[in-house]
Amino acid sequence: MTDTIRILLVDDHAVVREGLRGLLEQQPDMVIIGEAGDGAAALRAAAAASPDVVILDMKMPGATPSDTIAGLRTACPKAQVLVFTSYAEDSQVRDALTAGASGYLLKDAMREDLIRAVREVHAGRAWLDPQAQRQMLDWMRRPPSVLESLTERERSVLVLLAEGHSNKHIARRLSLTEGTVKGYVSQVLDKLGVSDRTQAALLAHREGLVTRP
Q1: Residues 188-199: tens digit of each pLDDT
Q2: Whole domain around residue 122: which residue ranges?
């Protein structure tokens, strides 16, 4: 391989970034051109350095992973996003791919799989971890749920609402303003076709989104 793959590492754990750097820079065709610990820093780094591949964790503070992925695709359209995370819930995989990610790999993958995934997404080919593939197939086989219409942020608001939190508490938990949360609650009620918070909470429990009473 003659082309060098320029990689941006995005994870809020420095030890994870250090491990990835040590592994990937052993490859003759890969170089780490930057690191970031949250979505906002990732967008700044991508705009400044124009990476070929962004390796991104899905569990970080700040903006939602979907917003970060979409922002990266806007800030650096030629960059391919490889999600590298610990979970493969069907909604999480679906949100990542819909936002523009080219690959989805779990952190328990073998090192060879990570290296191959980087090369595959860099070449413009999709890469899905086997568990992520199973989750997507299971989702495709299930009857559609009314919750499918909700965005990732709206689902987060609904979970907290169903657990009995006030708009003020939800705002603190999600680092939003109360006015923004109020808007999200209205959107959730409208999309779910319910008239109040109690009905939305009951629906969330019935659909299995929330199990805590």
Answers
A1: 999 988 889 988
A2: 5-140
